[in-house]
Amino acid sequence: MAVLWPPRRRMSAPCFLLCFLLGFVAGLFPFAHRHLHLDLHLPLPPPESAFREQSVDPPLPPSPPLLQPDAPMATEPSERKLVLVVTPTRARPLQAYYLRRLAHTLRLAPSPLLWLVVESGEATLEAAALLRGCGVMYRHLSSPTPDTPQDPRRRGRRQKRPIDSRARQRNAALDHIEHHRLHGIVYFADEDNVYSLDLFYHLRHIRSFGTWPVAILAAGKSKTIVEGPVCEGSRVVGWHTRERTKNPQGRFHVDMSGFAFNSSMLWDAKNRAHQAWNYIRQLDTAKDGFQETTFIEQLVEDETQMEGIPPGCSKIMNFHLHLEDKDTVYLKGWQTTQNLDAVIAVNKK
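^ thats the sequence. predicted structure below, dont judge the formating
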């Protein structure tokens, strides 16, 4: 017996379109919940009366950091002046020791600091390798070796060399600073001296030209001499000098590592006393002991344009040592491929 089903009604177009849109929206709902960060389980906000009953205390301001009585005020690195440390050097047995010792001191000094190392003659690979691992921002420069003056009357005999070839090395660093307009405080730090970290804190307080006393080890290494300014506060009123005469020669009695100045004085005549000078450099023809005063006379006219640091100039912050290494054999690359002679032989049983 055949069963007859009733005929199926055809779905109208509006009903089909409505069902299609409902299914499409239901399918997109999980994606909309993910991208629009919808959270259907958020708690209801509390009534306004709850906010009126609660009182929130304002946050306390942060307490200032504790500072030691004698510690200098710390500033942000962006507000500190750049210290340009100029160090002349040459290839010799103790070069690695001097440079590494000075590098350890500069690495502890506050930034920003740029170390300008100037070698006499061509730059050596040994010094370049040491500077790459010193941990200090540096620039490795070289200065041409000064020519030996030829005297026709002294043929066959030893010719006289310039008094201080390090003057040309410092001038090479000054040329680099002026050419690249490096704004900061220029300081001549010889590699064989000893420096305190307090010195690099006080250097950044110099406005134009600053000076301080330096302890110098005498030639006989039996006593220490102090050379530098005598101050009342920050005003220079006199000088400590190593000369024993009543009328010492020279205008300013300062060691080469006992002063620093603003680098803008090299190219901006408005920042220095002698506006007629167009080329501020050290004179390699000056006599021994006059290198400092002849250079300072190009920057300032008298003591009124100097700043004594620290106030009172009663603190020794660096030492000038006379250490010679003439009798030491220079090892190429600072190393030897042969065994060293044993001073005490090992007893073999």
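The first strand starts at residue 83 and ends at 89.
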